[in-house]
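Researcher: Good morning. I'm working through a list of sequences from a screen, and I'd like to move beyond sequence-only analysis. For each chain I'm collecting a predicted structure so we can compare shapes side by side. This is the next one on the list. No need for commentary yet; just the structure.
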Amino acid sequence: MTVLPSMQTTPNFPMPDPADEPFLWGVATSGYQSEGGYNGPDQPKNNWCLAEQHRTVMKTGAAVEFWTRYQEDFQLCQNLGLNAFRLSLEWARIQPSSHTDHAPAPPYDRAVLDAYSDRIAACYQAGLEPFVTLHHFTHPAWLGLDAWLKPETIDCFVDYVQVTVTHINRRLTDHHQLPPIRWYITTNEPNILVPNTYLNGMFPAGSPPGLKMMLLAYNHLLAAHVRAYNAIHDIYAANGWTTPYVSLNTYCSDLYWSEKVLWDLLTVRQENIKPEELRDYAYARAHRFETALQKVELNFRHNLPYRFGQLARWLSNRLGRRNFDAAHLHFFLQVLDASPRSRVFDFLAIDYYDPFIAHIFRLPSFSDFEFETKDFRGWLMSGITSKWWDWRYLPEGLHFFCKYYSQEFSRATESDRLCPILIAENGMALRRKPDNSIAVHRPDEIHRSEYLEAHLEQVQKLRQEGIPLMGYFHWSLHDNYEWGSYTPRFGLYSIDFTKGSDRLVEDHLGDRPAETYARLIRNKN
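Model: Good morning. Structure tokens for this chain:
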């Protein structure tokens, strides 16, 4: 394949050194899931608009009213002893339109940009470091359902990044006399966005699912990250602002072809891997990853669903290996080769839930459907595949992934130091329908406080071992909209949606996880 010649490179910016930075204790949120005010009449519309209108998903409605209750939420975080808050800027709110498909790009709403800047200022004023996500799964409806199948979406995204980052930071510095944002995630979990859109149909799409669509979307999303990374660094350099730290985050997976391959692709230029060498390079990395996994002793339950899951993992590995081809990534590799910077992430961010493909199945359960299933296959797969509240509890896996990734990517960071790692999300779901008709224990019957204690023990172990861990963000501050449903509950603060959006310190099982998190932070600082 032909790759464009590289542009003259500029010096890479320094990697963050966790030894020089305070450890970030925080919570993670996203705009569409918590702000409220999307997809209704005279409201900004995103790519979930038609799904909400057709009632194939629950409507977001007011969500948890973060847009108006943000000061209260920042105060809650400050009271817990947190020092960081992850939030997203919603493209559909910043560049809104009433159109729902293939419309010209509308103007930016400068009042909304000011409003986001004011919220970030309030975050600072509450003693919280703002950690900003620029794309958290959603895009404006005017781009169409299949925005990431079109290369022109990349130009639209980069323009949105340039306008938004410049405007918000200039208001922070000039109006609020506060520093510009230091931490960014460009795109949230591309390895969830793509398969959920073009493999299993969980996210809205206008095209039929298939491998071709998945690869095309990955091509464009990875290219968009590279260009956004450079755009943000260029903006800060031009304005004389302190160098920012920019990355993306991935959903942690023990399937190499689902997650780690993306990080490896982002480092091929630093590693001087030629296109014709890329297949062998990926195969070698996959083999090394599998070998490391096999050496880890994790407490799996070797029941029947696990054995079927292991078979699914073996088949997925075979498919990933067989279908990996540099020719499918031509567009991304061109953008990467043309990047003025060889390094295109400043830290490595992972979201740790249940990363083990062997856990995708459960014993059949057909009692928790929330929406009509139109065919037998959909009915069957929904009954035997794990739901949010079925995700297994293996905190030792968090230690493995953080340590392995930090060591694995130390060479690619052009430094003798280990690669800095951020736990951008970690949490567990409880099950409770919005009308409270179902409120049951998880299959493992653990409470969120137990989950927090076990995972923060691994965080402490990593820090003691010298792994450059930058921070830990719990998903989420409060229960919220979880991509089509209000039934999965991830919040430190519980919300009874039959009574509004008040943040409740005690959940329906009598647990008080926010207090547990605060106590653990005090003990580990």
